[in-house]
Design goal:
76% of the residues lie in helices and 1% in strands. It has helices spanning 2-35, 53-57, 61-93, 97-108, 115-126, 131-139, 152-175, 180-188, 193-204, 206-222, 225-231, 238-247, 252-281; strands at 39-40, 46-47.
Length: 282
């Protein structure tokens, strides 16, 4: 009887979360999934005619290139943020406790400003008469301004800047829990710094590394605002493709198919991370 009462209380406590999950996630995704297999007429109206060819169309030459470019951009963003963020997170985690909060604040403060303002600040930095080219020309490192803005390189720079805290914070929370005594014991036993890192620090920080990488990769592959603002018409990623299909081309079924492809990829990565985490604990 007691177990039944506890189970009923548990359901009541979880009910708001379940309702929220169902109303704002399951139902919208279900609608998009249904829309992705419907048809569109010549006027852009959705017709209830079965058309799984929307998914096949995604693998045509042009759209396949957009998908590949999006994957490469997201992977590059994840790799660079990891290379930059891991040392930063490790330094913060090994700093004195009084200094850690200030260092974390320094990581987060730039992101208290509006996303558009930060993006246009980078546009001012990267354009031909911007701060970067002015500094390079004055130092004599280049003789002509670099053409960075409205290129994939500019998009990558914006992505790395935007998502860097997403990988620093999970890594910090994991690295901060590593006991200094373990590192000292390994050093006393003759382990060199690289061995200490590769055999102790890196394995223990794997959960934070995976969580941070997913937090960067999943939103990066669907980002459309940064490619629009910093890449111009030269850089089209799958997020831009989805937005254009819904708002410009009025081909909602095809846009929904592209969106479901991203959802499937994201869910696959999340399920893999959960299974990996369980295997680690076992």
């Amino acid at each position: 009887m007691l177990r039944v009462q506890q189970s009923g209380r548990g359901i009541l406590v979880a009910l708001p979360v379940l309702v929220y999950f169902f109303v704002f996630l399951v139902i919208p995704l279900g609608l998009v999934a249904v829309l992705s297999v419907l048809s569109r007429d010549s006027y852009g109206e959705v017709r209830f005619i079965w058309n799984p060819g929307n998914y096949v169309r995604l693998f045509d030459g042009l759209y396949l290139k957009i998908l590949v470019d999006s994957l490469l951009m997201a992977l590059s963003t994840t790799a660079i943020t990891l290379l930059i963020g891991y040392p930063v997170a490790y330094y913060i985690a090994r700093s004195p406790e009084r200094r850690r909060s200030w260092l974390l604040l320094a990581v987060l403060v730039p992101f208290w400003t509006n996303f558009i303002i930060r993006t246009y600040a980078w546009i001012l930095i990267l354009r031909e008469d911007g701060l970067l080219n002015a500094a390079l020309l004055k130092s004599g490192l280049v003789s002509t301004p670099l053409d960075i803005l409205f290129t994939p390189t500019a998009v990558l720079i914006g992505m790395v800047y935007e998502f860097l805290p997403f990988i620093v914070l999970p890594l910090y929370s994991t690295l901060e829990k590593i006991d200094e005594a373990q590192l000292a014991a390994a050093a006393d036993l003759g382990a060199r710094p690289f061995a200490v890192f590769s055999r102790i620090v890196l394995p223990l920080s794997t959960p934070g590394l995976i969580a941070g990488s997913l937090l960067v990769f999943i939103p990066a592959i669907g980002m459309f605002a940064l490619p629009d603002l910093m890449g111009g018409a030269r850089t089209v990623l799958v997020g831009n493709l989805i937005r254009n299909q819904f708002l410009v081309a009025r081909d909602w079924p095809f846009g929904a198919a592209a969106a479901m492809l991203l959802v499937g990829l994201s869910l696959s990565l999340l399920l893999w991370s959960v299974r990996f985490s369980r295997a680690e604990w076992l």
